[in-house]
Here is the input.
Amino acid sequence: MPFALLLAVPKFSWSTDTIWTTESAYNLIRVAHQGKRLVLLLNSRDSVHTVRVESSNWTGFYYDDFALGPLLVPARSVMVLGMGGGGSIQATRLTAPEAAIDAVEIDGKVVDAAQRFFGLHADPHLRIHVADARPWLQRNRGPYGIVHVDLYHGGPYVPFYLTTVEFYRLVRSRMSDDGVAMINVFDVGSQQEVLASVVATLKQVYPSVMVVPAGYFSNKMVLAFARPQTLVSVRDRLAAVEGRNPWQVLARKSATEITEPAVRPGAIVLTDDRAPVEEMTRRMLAGR
Here is the structure.
């Protein structure tokens, strides 16, 4: 399930701002109202899962970067792995308002919150599936032009089996040949060890992997293309977006910031047999 941001987000009170709460087998779930925005929090007040600004699909957080997908590849169909409150869906609707979307979320109570408070009940082109992402992928064929991967435990930890070469091979098998997978990665560590391993792992599966800073904080949007791309061609597509809407401004900004990192020597390629992503996350949070 997705994880918005995290430790650097301003504190939200459990008491005075909370408008709805429930508990599931996976999470303590709260919806809080602060000013003109709603926030979905999981398990602690520091674990901000989704933000929604009233009367707008734009938040300033990393979810907004999912609007870039339809600017880079055809967006007839989209698969969302880790729906949460639907931040990536709201952003996608800015650039692909009629794309068919299949969204997978493991926690049915999170789906309830998304539909009650975050506007997903009104999307006629959206199908929501309450399921674990990897088993769901094994049962459903696609193909999808864009895949969102935003799979967190309601905190900074990603389930290890959703980070591996085997998992991304399964994702790739459900994509169209001109598609892109968009992966949210949170890494505040000085060594960027988590990000380096994600890039090394993805490059075992995808011919072109690029990274762009996302949102206000330390998130990165990793773009994994099913077909070889050049950094120049991707930059040109983003730079050519005209207009003053926030997503158009973001596209041009991303054109100046996107990189194509090489695999770092010593970066761990994550596999089903060896995926120490929790250990790396603990080191990252400890500042090492």
